[in-house]
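CATEGORY: protein folding

GOAL: derive structure tokens
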Amino acid sequence: MKLGEERIYTIPLRKAKRTQRKKRTPRAVRELRSFLRRHAKAENIKIDSKLNEKLWERGIEKPPSKIRVRVKKEEEEETATAYLAE
């Protein structure tokens, strides 16, 4: 992914369902960050507030199983911002 480029990813968050009930949505956030580190090749990942609200929409016990995300890589040092793609 080049600087200033935007891409849309569908990120699977199924691994978050395998953990304890009260730790599922925090695990989904970590899964989202690790996916974007691999695919966007950025060390710092910023999550937009609307995307964060979508992840936490059904509480800590029931995160979504997958989510569509629009990622924009910034001109700065290895920073990518993730937005909700809908």
